[in-house]
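dumping this here before i forget
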Amino acid sequence: MKKKLLYIVNADWFFLSHRLPIAQEALRQGYDVHIACAVTDKKEVLESHGLIVHPLALERGRASLASYLASFFEIVFLLLKLRPALVHLVTIKPVLFGGIAARLTCVPACIAAVSGLGFVFLDQGIMARLRRTIVLGLYRLALGSKRTKIIFQNVDDRQTLMQGAGIKESQTVLIRGSGVSLSAYEVKPEPEGDPVVMLPARLLIDKGVREFVEAARLLQRKGINARFCLVGSTDPANPASLTDDEIQGWVRKGIIEAWGHRTDMPAVLSQANIVALPSYREGMPKVLLEAAACGRAVVTTDVAGCRDSITPDVTGLLVTVRDAASLANGLEKLILDPQRRHAMGRAGRKLAEEAFDIREVVTKHMDIYNQNG
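structure:
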């Protein structure tokens, strides 16, 4: 009889972009693979890959206590119905709700992927500290079982939960991101003309979008010739989302270009000379792994996740978080020095081959499944 593997994740599109190759390998190795998630328009795509989909009413962003409890009990009832041998939880709410539910229903083995700690660990003030205390308590409940293995993408997040939630180091595994297909992301020559500085991300405040726009404004005032492009869309379900009106206001002023949501990232990234991600905190940003695979120099912030995705001063530059002037300075260095950019791009591709190959990421996950399932 096949072992039943259940993924619980926030949304179908996120699973397709970050976990599909792992699920496909699990299918090849004989697992019966299910996924529970909020469904947008990707249910048929998931099913076409052989996955059994269970729609889950899991609201993203801040929601009411009643909706949180409804989501939690929906997961409990699903676990009681399916009785999986192994549950893999991905993103914050599935990890918290699913981890507690897995303990209550005595799931034999649980894998929790902590791919960043979210805006709760970025907010400041008394209420923010109170929320962090509550969330750390939930992590303690969700991840405290000896049957739970926790995958971290960077050492900072691991240290935070070991100190704040009592996670044991023996429970943890470090895997640097969700991997990138090296065959899909080829190194192509940089485009000619004014350098294109690209920020590819959801258009959220904590991705550093406003600092990016201010850095563009500062460089334009200095007479630096470059194009500054946002690639991505707003996310109204996220409390940190910018508005479309704000984005279009910057476009009308000629500060940035807005390319919108794109799914053809290999082609998009090849149109950049520099990739920027001035984020406030990440797990391990997939787009920086993709930028490295494309042979593009990176400018990013010296924060958890971002600094783990580059080799500082070799594949990219680190700048101060929430500091538009520092970001502008880092971007200016690479805009004006194409030879340095090219050298960083070559080093980035080498780093991607050594550390970010999706095949290695899949192998590591299957080892965890087979040892714990």
